[in-house]
């Protein structure tokens, strides 16, 4: 008997109720090779969510070593997207050649092991072989990201039991995967990071992925031993992570924080955030100032205002609250309002650095973004605004623009003073741009720093590090500020007028529309404060 090309060819294969082919098991009875809709949704949802959890937490793991900059964020996002694209593409091709039932469990299991070991791998590499950090970080993102992204095409292949439902199946699973990614992002940013250390998040996620592999592949006897090995590896990695270098006393919402005791001063404490020294506090003597830039702050303020006179001050960035404590000790009655974005740092100030109540200290700390805090200040309400906010090795760009500085000037009274800490290295492009922005906002500006850095010693090489800029609507007494710095043994000079204009050159004015701070600022592997 012959058939025409358009005639259906007889096929004795069993067909499921949905019209899809069904395979037979060893006893000859039919078995559906598809996957239940609920199981499919759970696998796609969970794997998509896990990719985003790993991506967000990886940023926090790398921040202490690469800085929390636009470049670091771009790098991590780029690697994650590469992993998603690679996993989706290769996963689809492999699913057409190998039974997807055999692929899902190992994809989840291997991902879980890598995710759980990521804190140990990254911190150990950063400590012992920094040159390999980017390579190791890329691998710990690419491997689980690609494997987890391959789960969706695996599951899609299993669910496509009828061509008539292709659009419905693909669309549903695509939507479930996107929703999972959204949930993973929101859950990590709003819940997990605020309540758990990043190492605990990754170890917990890795464990869940390995358990998911065990459940998915339990019917396939060959995966039982592999699952046991994976779980043992996760447990070993969890124990080893506790001994990995780069640990924190506390993992806050934004930082890996440590308190380091001063071996030369019993009551001295250094607040280290993401590996950088941010604040030094003498818990018994708040008038003691160790870092040069804070002594420069004190020199400027004590010159500009009568000795002992209480001030109304606003501080953008809190850290260890060194300068608010200094003002409270040397100018009784001073009211300091502090905008500190990280509630974990505020808890450390109270629990580890001896910060008293607002009623006792005059220091009121608000957990808020510095720019939003500025907007809440009443016009002409403050004698002093102090800028000292940094995220890792980068300054928050939205605090550096002319619009932000106009809010600063609006909040200051006629004789008010703005004092801010700058950090830059190399060509000092960011520092020059910020000085240019201040000069466009305030009539009087001065720059304090190492002579070579601020253009007063052109024969010496630029050192970089901390500099302090002072801006006001009233003239600044440069000789008096220099005398005060000399008395405090700061070792800095002050530049004003034509000298400062020449140093600034044609640097751009930073605005909300264009403030490439991360690109202008050249980081350097030294502590943030000296």
What descriptors fit this protein?
disordered N terminus, 15% strand, 530 residues, 17 helices, alpha/beta, 14 strands, disordered C terminus, 50% helix
What does the model show?
With 530 residues, the chain is α/β, with parallel strands linked by helices. Helix content is 50%, strand content 15%. It is built from 17 helices and 14 strands. The strands form three sheets. It has an eight-stranded mixed β-sheet with strand order 9-8-7-10-11-13-12-14, sandwiched between helices. The protein has a four-stranded antiparallel β-sheet with strand order 3-4-5-6, covered by helices on one side. It has a two-stranded antiparallel sheet with strand order 1-2. Helix 1 runs antiparallel to helix 6 and helix 3 packs parallel to helix 7.
List the helices and strands and how they pair.
Elements: E1 23-24, E2 30-31, H1 37-66, H2 70-95, H3 104-128, H4 133-159, H5 166-195, H6 198-217, H7 222-241, E3 250-251, E4 256-261, E5 268-273, E6 276-282, H8 292-304, E7 312-316, H9 322-330, E8 335-340, H10 343-351, H11 358-361, E9 363-367, H12 370-376, E10 382-387, H13 402-411, E11 412-424, H14 429-439, E12 444-449, E13 465-472, H15 478-487, E14 493-495, H16 497-504, H17 517-520
Helix pairs in contact: 1-2, 1-3, 1-4, 1-5, 1-6, 2-4, 3-4, 3-6, 3-7, 6-7, 8-15
């Amino acid at each position: 008997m012959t058939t025409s090309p358009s005639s259906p060819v007889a096929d004795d294969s069993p067909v499921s109720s949905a019209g899809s082919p069904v395979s037979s098991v060893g006893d000859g009875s039919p078995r559906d090779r598809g996957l239940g809709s609920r199981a499919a949704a759970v696998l796609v949802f969970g794997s998509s969510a896990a990719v985003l959890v790993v991506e967000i937490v990886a940023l926090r793991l790398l921040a202490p070593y690469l800085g929390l900059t636009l470049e670091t964020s771009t790098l991590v996002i780029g690697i994650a997207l590469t992993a998603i694209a690679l996993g989706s593409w290769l996963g689809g091709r492999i699913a057409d050649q190998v039974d997807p039932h055999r692929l899902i469990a190992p994809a989840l299991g291997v991902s879980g092991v890598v995710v759980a070991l990521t804190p140990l791998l990254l911190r150990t590499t950063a400590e012992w072989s920094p040159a390999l950090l980017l390579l190791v970080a890329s691998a710990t993102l690419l491997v689980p990201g690609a494997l987890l992204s391959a789960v969706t095409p695996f599951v899609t292949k299993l669910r496509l039991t009828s061509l008539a439902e292709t659009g419905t199946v693909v669309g549903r699973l695509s939507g479930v995967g996107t929703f999972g990614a959204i949930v993973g992002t929101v859950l990590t940013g709003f819940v997990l990071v605020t309540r758990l250390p990043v190492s605990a998040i990754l170890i917990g996620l890795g464990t869940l992925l390995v358990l998911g592999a065990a459940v998915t592949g339990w019917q396939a006897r060959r995966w039982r031993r592999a699952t046991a090995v994976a779980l043992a590896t996760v447990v070993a990695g969890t124990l080893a992570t506790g001994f990995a270098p780069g640990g924190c006393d506390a993992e806050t919402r934004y930082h890996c924080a440590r308190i380091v005791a001063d071996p030369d001063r019993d009551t001295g404490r250094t607040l280290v955030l993401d590996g950088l020294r941010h604040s030094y506090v003498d818990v018994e003597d708040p008038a003691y100032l160790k870092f040069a830039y804070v002594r420069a702050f004190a020199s400027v303020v004590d010159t500009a205002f009568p000795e002992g006179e209480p001030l109304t001050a606003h501080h953008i960035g809190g850290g260890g609250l060194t300068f608010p404590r200094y003002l409270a000790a040397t100018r009784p009655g001073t009211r300091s309002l502090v905008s500190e974005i990280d509630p974990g740092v505020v808890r450390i100030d109270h629990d580890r650095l001896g910060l008293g109540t607002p009623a006792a200290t005059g220091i009121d700390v608000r957990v808020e973004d510095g720019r939003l805090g500025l907007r809440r200040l009443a016009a002409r309400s403050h004698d002093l605004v102090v800028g000292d906010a940094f995220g890792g090795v980068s300054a928050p760009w939205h605090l550096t623009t002319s619009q932000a500085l106009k809010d600063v000037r609006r909040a200051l009274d006629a004789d008010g003073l703005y004092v801010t800490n700058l950090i830059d290295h190399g060509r000092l492009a960011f520092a020059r741009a910020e000085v240019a922005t201040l000069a466009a906002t305030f009539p009087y500006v001065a720059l304090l720093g190492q002579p070579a850095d601020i253009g007063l010693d052109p024969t010496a090489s630029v050192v970089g590090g901390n500099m302090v800029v002072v801006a006001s609507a009233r003239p600044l007494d440069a000789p008096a500020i220099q005398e005060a710095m000399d008395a405090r043994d700061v070792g800095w000079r002050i530049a004003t007028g034509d000298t400062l204009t020449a140093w600034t050159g044609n640097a751009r004015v930073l605005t909300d529309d264009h403030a490439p701070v991360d690109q202008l600022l050249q980081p350097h592997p030294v502590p943030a404060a000296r």
